[in-house]
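wait is this the right file?? whatever heres the structure
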């Protein structure tokens, strides 16, 4: 799959953070991942996510992977598309 190929995966990290009253900086500190890398994920520009990273995020946010990531085939977007 080319780097700029559209995809239909949506990231809802911003919504879950808002629901938890947590900032990206706080999540970064608790998970041990840089704010920059979390921002890439939050903005839908990540090309991959390690299961260990996803597990840490879910543990800190007390959520399931499906709360953070969904598949929406009706609305493909490029790497910088809406999350």
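ok assuming it is, sequence goes like this
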């Amino acid at each position: 799959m080319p780097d700029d190929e559209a995809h239909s995966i949506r990231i809802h990290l911003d919504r879950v953070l808002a629901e938890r009253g947590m900032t990206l900086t706080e999540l970064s500190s608790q998970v041990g991942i840089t704010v920059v890398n979390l921002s890439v994920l939050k903005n839908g520009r990540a090309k991959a996510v390690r299961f260990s990273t996803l597990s840490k995020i879910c543990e800190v946010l007390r959520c399931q992977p499906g709360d953070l990531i969904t598949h929406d085939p009706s609305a493909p977007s490029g790497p910088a598309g809406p999350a």
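The chain has a mean pLDDT of 87. so i think its the right one actually
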